[in-house]
């Protein structure tokens, strides 16, 4: 990551092109309390904040406390599971949008915005695999919205 950023900086493109790396939750050996991925006595009220702070603590332990974290995909399936309902998915997306729009931040990083992207734009009715994996979209494949969301 540093080498790519340094190369972009050398040609004056470091402000125009951002360097990112994708990770997944399986990389965290221990995610709670987040500072061991220490909770300094501020309680966590949702899993999203706890996971975000666990990633921040883990990368801080590796010297990356100044590296911003972007949540590149977060979603909830709307069909084909016990809790995979359109109502639950709509509630998840509305609450997520409301949470990240607020300036509350997380217990470890209060007052900081969290750049977050929804997964996914459209249901993928032709996607192979489990049926539930085809139903994460906020739109149906025919482009009709599934939920009333306010960004």
Which keywords apply here?
GH, 151 residues, mainly alpha, Putative glycoside hydrolase family 17, two-stranded parallel sheet, hydrolase, 3 helices, Glyco_hydro_17_plant, globular, 26% helix
The level of helicity is: 25-40%
- The number of helical elements comes to 3
Q: What composes the largest sheet? A: 2 strands, parallel
Quaternary structure state of the chains depicted: single chain
Strand order of the largest sheet: 1-2
**Category by helix and strand content:** mainly alpha
Q: How far is the N terminus from the C terminus?
A: 31 Å
Low-confidence stretches: none
Sketch the topology as an H/E string, one letter per element: HHEHE
Strand segment count:
2
Domain tally: 1
What fraction of residues sit in β-strands?
A: under 5%
Rg result = 18 Å
SSE blueprint and pairings:
Blueprint: H1 2-10, H2 47-61, E1 71-74, H3 86-101, E2 116-118
Parallel strand pairs: 1-2
GO biological process, one term: carbohydrate metabolic process
Keywords: Glycosidase, Hydrolase
Organism: Helianthus annuus
């Amino acid at each position: 990551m540093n080498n790519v950023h340094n190369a972009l900086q050398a040609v004056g493109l470091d402000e125009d092109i951002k360097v990112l790396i994708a990770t997944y939750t399986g990389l965290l050996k221990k995610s709670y309390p987040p500072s061991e991925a220490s909770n300094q006595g501020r309680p966590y009220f949702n899993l999203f904040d706890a996971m975000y702070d666990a990633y921040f603590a883990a990368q801080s332990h590796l010297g990356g406390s100044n590296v911003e974290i972007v949540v590149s995909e977060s979603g909830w399936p709307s069909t084909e599971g016990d809790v995979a309902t359109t109502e639950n998915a709509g509630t998840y997306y509305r609450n997520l949008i409301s949470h990240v729009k607020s300036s509350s931040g997380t217990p470890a990083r209060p007052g900081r915005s969290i750049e977050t992207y929804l997964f996914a734009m459209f249901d993928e009715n032709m996607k192979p695999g489990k049926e539930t994996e085809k139903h994460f979209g906020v739109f149906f494949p025919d482009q009709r919205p599934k939920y009333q969301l306010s960004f």
